[in-house]
Amino acid sequence: MDYTKLIKEVGRGKNHACDLDREQSLALYREMLAGEVPDLQLGGLLIALRIKGESEEEMLGFYQAMEEQVMQLQAPADRPMPIVIPTYNGARKQANLTPLLAMLLSKLGFPVLVHGVDEDPTRITSAEIFRQLGVEAAQSQQQAQQQLDAGQQPVFVPVSLLCPPMDKQLALRWQMGVRNSAHTLAKLITPFGKQDVLRLSSVSHPEYIQKVSSFFRQVEGRALLSQGTEGEVYANPQRCPAIYLLANGEQQVLADKQEFTDVDLPDSKDVATTVAFTNACLRGERAIPQALINQIICCLVGAGVSPDMAEARMIIEQVF
């Protein structure tokens, strides 16, 4: 490909840059993931795309190229629809409750697959918390499938195993100083291909809800979408966002925005404190934040286990 010409197209600044079409985007990202783009041009393209912002057609092309590189798994038979949870941000200011959400969903009988980074020098990752909870990262496709079929706890698959080329793209952040397209794309990964699956997805700002909703319609995906907590998908325990179900090309609100006071939360974001809080919630010794309960109720509806929120709430009350 003529990378210089492509940089001229996308690199003219936020107001004058042109978008690539889907075929161009697919071809370009295939070469990016294959490591065929020279470092100088790769850096120029990534920075230009970050400044311009990826168009819908570009994201769809990039996503298709990424899908071709993702490890594939089979949903367990005679079990509810799998739930896929991305975790790429971790804890910056408050405790990371993504592992707690995953453990609670697993307790309800869902096959739960969590994917994300192994480590982040600036934040507390879910991988660190999972290790202390006794959930070891899968080391191979076969092991991930075995863990998924066993169904005893969530399965954590590091992105380095799930999609090695994306792991390399994500790691460029530490050389370039800023995130790139991979940080958005990685959160959309599903290893189940076209199989029925419920993805948990989040946005950083409410105005992106419609953009992400449009993406899931285009790829015919099913997802629960909400505003994230420091980039993680779990519902903010004090300011639970509105939660949307995206399915069958339609968008509906399952839960309205809600604020909570006097919430029992960890008093620190460190691993030991978060693990102790998670275990206490699982044992029923501390109250599960209502925002997470609301999110789990939405998962029951989104995955088709319950026909409506009222019945899902009754199930949750019996279990938790």
Automatic annotation (TrEMBL):
GO terms for molecular function: anthranilate phosphoribosyltransferase activity. It holds the Pfam family Glycos_trans_3N. Residues 5-68 form the Glycosyl transferase family 3 N-terminal domain. Keywords: Glycosyltransferase, Transferase. The keyword Glycosyltransferase applies. It comes from Ewingella americana (strain ATCC 33852 / DSM 4580 / CCUG 14506 / JCM 5911 / LMG 7869 / NCTC 12157 / CDC 1468-78). GO terms for cellular component: cytosol. This is Putative anthranilate phosphoribosyltransferase. One of its GO terms (biological process) is L-tryptophan biosynthetic process. Its EC number is 2.4.-.-, 2.4.2.18. It comes from the Bacteria. Coiled coil: none annotated. It is an enzyme of class 2 (transferase).
